[in-house]
Design brief:
The structure holds three protein chains of three kinds. By secondary structure, chain A is mostly helical. In chain A, α5 packs antiparallel against α11 and α7 packs across α9. The longest helix of chain A is centred in the C-terminal third of the chain and has 39 residues. In chain B, the strands form two sheets. In chain B, strands 6-7-8-3-9-10-12-11 form an eight-stranded mixed β-sheet, sandwiched between helices. In chain B, α3 packs parallel to α6. In chain C, α4 packs parallel to α12 and α10 packs antiparallel against α12. Classes of the chains: A mainly alpha, B alpha/beta, C mainly alpha. Chains in contact: A-B, A-C, B-C. The interface between A and C is large, with 44 and 39 residues.
Chain lengths: ~350, ~350, ~325
């Protein structure tokens, strides 16, 4: 298993290198030229010259690439044109928000999706089952921003049950040691701040998690149906085991294998969706920052963020892959007689 | 002494949408006394497996219609609720299935799959359960059982898996054990060992055994009495000696004749039963075996024969194979089938 | 072109259809074994029959038909010119004319008839959706076929490229490409198209690899038939059904993604061409005063995408050979 992990990690390297090359080329291919890209449209000729020297833009391409790589490894992605902070620090400041959002969405999708999918499978062929199939098809199609608007308008603006935007209520006093607002409140015992952060997360989490929810319901249902027909379930029944034991230990545990993989694959969707969700709900995470970067042509941010996100995405995928082999003893222990 | 298992006119039909019911078992009656071993013989599609599933109460709840009576020591099983059946399966009834690999849960250890039976029906836990599981595995002939307890199904050989399944089935000393083609999926050398194991266990524990198979060779070694099934009905019932010495139903005769014999001349061709199990006549019209029968009369295709009781055997045939005394130049089963 | 007998090589259906133990065998005719060219027809006919009975498929087809018809006939259906700011005078700060007898969906923030804008928006969505999916399909087809047909280092190289494309979440990928090409609707279309390439490439490669090992291909090759002809006349037709399914589903995603990118502002702001995503973006500021300006284009997007999704999913089920009875 360790060898497999190392092999996969090794494969990662050329991919990430390839990506870095693409990004490098990308900045230089942007309309207006790289200097302007790095500086923004308002750079004076003087500043442009400075940037040219600093980034070595008049040196041969491979030299530029090499220094780009070196800087990347040192996590130096330059400075944001808009905020004048280093790209790296902007990322670190805003990342916790996006993580909180993503985790909340996952909790929603998994916490609701697996029971629903299981129920639908249990009632296979009956109304609830058909309804859930159609429901999940619809759920997959409804774009994040649609649901976001819907929720924002109905629940927040019209009904006023939950805040429509932002991460927290400014009037509540809160200190933020880790910048994970929910966690911070718990750590500093400012429980009202924690609760406040949670209420601000509910609607965005539902909007972001709706598509993964639909997918998880579908996959869980299919997996449970498939597993229920397996011979070992029949054996479990033949042993006279209690119904709950059969469901839990024999059906669900095996059905969770494909479900777990699916959950892992949702990361990409969640990251993409986070951008849209953060915009709709005005959350100060990476997504909305990227959006503002697009609007303001803040290319250092775009280049840096895309690279970081890609690395994270790839690593998460790898971890999901590896964890699958942990869950399934056939892969983990392997070998023995056939 | 009342019979242990009494199956009377068992009928099982699978309903299909928009098409007539598929009658898998069409009026089957047989019985077992305590400690007896009875064979249920037939080809694929004869209904033998469905019969056993009906006895065990393992047929699906929807899409199936069951009629007739199945009495275990006078208690009608078909009228019991699913939970009541669950209580019986293990301590009273048990079953071993055909494919040992697919019949075992791949993500659970062998040990757990044995101890869960012990926990459910015999109240054993923890160390006591583990010790008993080890003892059971040892009893069924698995070497190094304390190590095997922690292993997963894919780490065991086919023969060991089947032994493990047998161990799970006899863990609670059931009164009735049903073995559905227990050796079909195994290597020939292992087959004999497994059958021997079964024989030992049933003798030791006084268990009644229903042995389902298509292989008359298996039956000859183990069964006290034999039921031959065709097309969902029993066509011949007799004790072992009578059946093998004097088969009367042409199908039985054909099965016997199709077994290659050590003492036949080297160039004697094998004599299979012509046709295939799907060349069926519906029992409403006539004898289901008629299309393939060499002794077919006109009557056989217009009127289904009843099961007649002749003391030493029961027979469902209009034109059975003649008894040896009835004809001077007694044709052997081999000649008849050719 | 000489070809080995499809029945023989594809291992014809078992005689009589082996009965499952426990059931009285019903004497069914075995399904005819599919040969290279027959697959398309026999699968297609049976699939169509199944689709006809499936309410989900019918629902999807109806929605798709509706969407396509509206897109094509928009100039005839729309009561007003979508660009014309006819209700400009009726706009007061903080309110615009709502639905009325003459304007069923009211006016937008600049006084244009919302219904006409929605109807014309369908044209854009259909156009960009089809374009984006075609780009994804065409490039994916090329890459996947190359990788699958040649194998070896070609396969490795192509798949690494695909992996790189996949290493970035699709929306970000589309954003980068759109930024590169300038903020116009066409850039967004191309960007979404490129984001779809990996799916098609993987799909085609998979089918290609599977077919490569199949009997009739080996037979054809042993007869010395050129690789190109094998690929074109045998392998590709067999890959038709999964591609069809994926194409339909991708069309749904393309429509949503293009709208999403327009929403993010990447498609520029051409006031003359109504596009659902852009309309959505413009409506953000008026969410509390005129929410319908957001919901109407949203609903339109969802209906269009839903139609293709329902159709695609039922197609997938209908064409699944495992479900053939």
């Amino acid at each position: 298993m360790l060898r497999y992990a190392i092999r996969r990690l090794a494969l990662l390297v050329p991919i990430l290198l390839g990506l870095s090359v693409l990004l490098f080329v990308w900045v230089r291919a942007l309309p207006g030229g790289p200097a302007q890209a790095l500086l923004g449209e308002h750079g004076s000729p003087d500043a442009e010259r400075q940037v040219r020297i600093a980034y070595g833009l008049d040196r041969p391409l491979y030299v530029q690439y090499w220094s780009f790589l070196k800087r990347t490894v040192h996590l130096d992605f330059g400075t944001s044109i808009r905020t004048n902070q280093s790209v790296t620090s902007e990322f670190l400041t805003r990342f916790p928000m996006t993580i909180e959002l993503t985790v909340a969405a996952l909790i929603f999708a998994v916490g609701l999706g697996i029971p629903l999918g299981y129920l639908a499978a249990r009632k296979h062929g009956r109304f609830l089952d058909h309804a859930s199939v159609v429901g999940s098809l619809i759920g997959v199609t409804i774009p994040v921003f649609f649901l976001g608007f819907l929720l924002k308008y109905w629940v927040a603006i019209k009904l006023g049950w939950l805040p429509p935007s932002g991460r927290s209520n400014e009037r509540i006093i809160a200190t933020h040691p880790t910048n994970f607002y929910v966690l911070d409140g718990l750590l500093t015992r400012e429980y009202d701040a924690s609760w406040d952060a949670i209420t601000h997360l509910i609607l965005p989490a539902i909007a972001l998690g709706s598509i993964p929810l639909a997918i998880i319901v579908r996959i869980t249902r299919a997996a449970v149906i498939d597993v229920s027909h397996e011979d070992y379930v029949r054996t479990a029944e033949a042993k006279g085991l209690a119904r709950s034991t059969v469901s839990r230990r024999h059906i669900l545990r095996n059905a969770m294998l494909p479900v777990a993989t699916t959950i892992g694959l949702q990361t990409g969707l969640l990251l993409s969706g986070a951008i849209l969700t953060e915009i709709v709900f005005g959350l100060p995470g990476i997504g909305s920052f990227v959006y503002h970067a697009i609007q303001n042509r803040d290319y250092p941010v775009l280049q840096g963020f895309i690279l970081i996100i890609a690395v994270i995405y790839v690593i998460v995928n790898l971890l999901v892959d590896l964890s699958y082999s942990l869950i399934d003893p056939r892969v983990r222990v392997g070998g023995g007689r056939g | 002494m009342s019979r242990l298992l009494d199956v009377t006119d068992l009928r099982v039909a699978f309903t299909r949408r928009g098409r007539p019911d598929m009658r898998a078992v069409d009026g089957v009656s047989f019985w077992l006394d305590e400690g007896e071993t009875v064979g249920l013989v037939g080809e694929s599609g004869s209904g033998k497996s469905v019969t056993s599933l009906a006895v065990m109460g393992l047929l699906p709840r929807r899409g199936v219609r069951v009629g007739g009576r199945v009495d275990l020591q006078g208690r009608s099983l078909l009228e019991l609720s699913p939970n009541q059946m669950r209580d019986l399966r293990g301590p009273e009834l048990a079953m071993v299935f055909q494919d040992p690999l697919s019949s075992l849960n791949p993500v659970l250890t062998i040990g757990l799959q044995v101890t869960e039976v012990l926990r459910r029906h015999r109240g054993l836990r923890g160390d006591a359960a583990r010790k008993e599981a080890t003892r059971l595995l040892d009893r069924v002939g698995i070497p190094d059982p304390s190590r095997r307890i922690r292993e997963y199904p894919h780490q065991l050989s086919g023969g060991m898996r089947q032994r493990a399944l047998i161990a799970m089935a006899v863990a609670c000393r059931p009164r009735l054990l049903i073995a559905d083609e227990p050796t079909t999926a195994l290597d020939v050398t292992i087959q004999a060992q497994i059958l021997e194991l079964l024989r030992e266990l049933v003798t030791e524990q006084g268990t009644a055994l229903v042995l389902i198979t298509h292989d008359l060779g298996v039956v000859a070694g183990l069964c006290d009495r034999v039921n031959v099934m065709y097309g969902g009905r029993i066509v011949e019932q007799a004790d072992r000696r009578t059946l093998f010495a004097e088969p009367r139903h042409p199908y039985t005769g054909g099965l016997l004749a199709s077994i290659p014999r050590l003492d036949s001349a080297g160039d004697v061709p094998l004599t299979p039963i012509p046709g295939s199990p799907t060349d069926l006549l519906a029992w409403e019209i006539g004898c289901a075996f008629a299309p393939r029968c060499q002794r077919r009369l006109d009557e056989c295709q217009t009127r289904a024969p009843e099961l007649s009781d002749e003391g030493v055997r029961r027979l469902r045939c209009h034109n059975p194979l003649p008894l040896r005394q009835e004809s001077t130049s007694a044709p052997t089963a081999t000649e008849v089938a050719r | 072109m000489a070809d080995s007998d499809p029945e023989a090589t594809a291992g014809g259906g078992s005689a009589g259809g082996a009965a499952v133990d426990g059931g009285v065998a019903v004497a069914e005719k075995p399904a005819p074994a599919p040969g290279p060219a027959e697959v398309g027809q026999s699968l297609g006919r049976e699939a169509f029959r199944r689709l006809r009975r499936n309410p989900v498929a019918i629902g999807g087809a109806v929605l798709v038909l509706l969407f396509v018809l509206v897109a094509i006939l928009a100039p005839l259906l729309a009561p007003y010119d979508p660009v014309d700011q006819i209700l400009k005078d009726q706009i007061r700060p903080g309110s615009f004319p709502g639905p009325s007898h003459e304007h069923w969906l009211g006016s937008d923030s600049l006084g244009r008839d919302e219904l006409s804008r929605i109807l014309f928006g369908a044209r854009q969505s259909l156009l960009v959706g089809v374009l984006a999916t075609t780009v994804g399909f065409a490039v994916g087809l090329l890459l996947g076929t190359l990788a699958g047909a040649f194998g070896g280092w070609v396969d490795n190289l192509v798949m690494r490229v695909v992996d790189i494309l996949l290493s970035v979440p699709s929306l970000l990928l589309a954003i980068s490409i759109a930024a590169l090409l300038g903020q116009r609707l066409i850039s967004v279309t191309l960007a979404v198209g490129v984001a779809q390439v990996p799916i098609f490439a993987r799909l085609l490669r998979g089918t290609m690899l599977a077919e490569r090992e199949s009997d009739y291909v080996l037979a054809a090759r042993s007869l010395g038939i050129r690789r190109r002809s094998i690929v074109l006349s045998h392998v590709l037709p067999n890959s038709l059904s999964p591609v069809l399914v994926q194409g339909t589903l991708s069309l749904a995603t393309a429509i949503v993604d293009v709208a999403a990118l327009s929403f993010l502002g990447l498609s520029g702001a051409d006031p003359d061409v109504p596009e659902w995503g852009r309309m959505l973006a413009e409506s953000q500021t008026f969410l509390s005063t005129a929410p319908r300006l957001a919901f109407l284009p949203c609903t339109a997007i969802v209906i269009a995408a839903l139609g293709f999704t329902l159709l695609g999913e039922s197609l997938r089920e209908a064409l699944d050979p495992k479900l053939r009875r």
